[in-house]
């Protein structure tokens, strides 16, 4: 499988190849994400009702707060001890709830930057700007400033509007 960095270095030439590389990179990244979600939720029918309700409650709270919630509070919201909550969440979702929360905080900051807003650390649940930059670099491989610059360059290179993809919301019932 190609890595997105390989795609950029191999195909990122001006013109049609740059557009092709961006499209292929996006497709590969979405495919990897879809496979991960599919694997994590693949055994949904085998989940107990209690596990489905637990994950539903946890995800609702995580999305409401954009990941800015203490794990102790989230465990209490789900009616479990912290250790039991972490263990059950990780068993069903494939990653720890704290990691999931970190990813949601990053996505909120990234979306704000893409909309032209400032990435204020406190607003997104970080202690200070250094923590925001460290987390942003961890998830995206670049600082927020570099990310904004790259987004501007890509927007300038794009000559025609890109097709918007529709995603189906996933609900646990």
UniProtKB/TrEMBL annotation:
GO terms for molecular function: DNA-binding transcription factor activity; sequence-specific DNA binding. Keywords: DNA-binding, Transcription, Transcription regulation. Residues 52-150 form the HTH araC/xylS-type domain. The keyword Transcription regulation applies. Coiled coil: none annotated. Transmembrane segments: none annotated. The keyword Cell cycle does not apply. This is HTH araC/xylS-type domain-containing protein.
């Amino acid at each position: 499988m190609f890595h997105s960095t390989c795609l950029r270095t191999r195909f990122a030439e001006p013109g049609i190849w740059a557009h092709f590389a961006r499209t292929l990179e996006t497709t590969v990244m979405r495919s990897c994400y879809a496979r991960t979600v599919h694997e994590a939720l693949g055994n949904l029918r085998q989940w107990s009702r209690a596990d489905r309700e637990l994950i539903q409650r946890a995800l609702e709270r995580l999305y409401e707060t954009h990941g800015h919630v203490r794990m102790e509070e989230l465990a209490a919201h789900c009616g479990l001890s912290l250790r039991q909550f972490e263990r059950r969440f990780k068993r069903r979702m494939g990653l720890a709830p704290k990691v999931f929360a970190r990813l949601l905080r990053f996505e909120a900051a990234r979306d704000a930057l893409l909309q032209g807003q400032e990435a204020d650390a406190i607003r997104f649940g970080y202690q200070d700007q250094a923590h925001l930059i460290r987390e942003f670099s961890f998830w995206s491989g670049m600082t927020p400033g570099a990310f904004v610059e790259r987004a501007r360059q890509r927007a300038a290179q794009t000559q025609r509007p890109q097709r918007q993809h529709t995603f189906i919301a996933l609900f646990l019932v």
